[in-house]
Known about the structure:
Glutathione S-transferase Yfyf (Class Pi), Chain A, domain 2, 10 helices, four-stranded mixed sheet
Amino acid sequence: MISLFGLGAGFGLPEISPFVTKTEVQLKMAGLAFRKQRAMPPASPKGQLPFMDDGGELIADSTFIRAHIERKYGFDFDHGLDVRARAQAWAFERMIEHHLYFALVGSRWVDPVNFAKGPAHFFDGVPADRREKLREDAQFRVAENYLISGLGRHAPDEDIDLAARSLRALSVQLGDRPYLMGDRPCGTDATAFAVIAGILTPFFESELRRRTEGFGNLVAYADRMMAQYFPEFEWGRAAEAA
């Protein structure tokens, strides 16, 4: 049995980490049975989530987990796509993971209100005399990564404008189709859904969320994907819109 390790449900989402969500959706796409287990990043071979135990073989990083699934189980996440479409799907995935994801990080970790409401609680179980220092250190490291990504070097309205350009590119690519590359989901849909849902969760208020809500097809896409891959989850955004 495959074991997938992640943070677990939280922040109004079935899984806190977008990268764990990506892998969870891809496992479901591939029709593979798995069990979900909670873990923190230091437990991973690469110090990050997700990681997966497949019969004693540990695979870390969502992209390498996808490659493992394709190689071991013969599942092609981009089945039906020609060479050009596969290249486009890869380019969109890189844009999402190396640009839009960091906008999400900024809205959760750098915004003081959202940090206090969400990520700060990761440290609630730490002894009181160390808790605040660990919170500050973690927030500083994430903010430093946000700076290194490039988005953190800009004023808040400028970084949101840049993120909105990536959102617009996704919206144009999706158009009125059910999935990014056409009539059937591909591997990049798992990535896009994970990050868009992470932005749209009603748990956090942010300008990034408001700008994303302006792309109606992306909102509908996230709702459809949530219903398809997490039908048992009570998606608060859908309830809010009803």
